[in-house]
Design a protein that fits this description.
flat, 55% helix, mainly alpha
Length: 55
Amino acid sequence: MRITERYAGPQETARQITYMEKACVYVEELTRNLGRKPSCCVTTFGCQMNAVHGI
């Protein structure tokens, strides 16, 4: 049993798998177009981003 099935049900798991498959196809096409594997940069700022200010 996948964790999403345990917490969200089989329909949600199927929906997420569909999106992952679409993302794989997109990345494969992008790889062919670029002639290399794509890369990305993720910037995080820590837990301060979750803080509610002014309360």
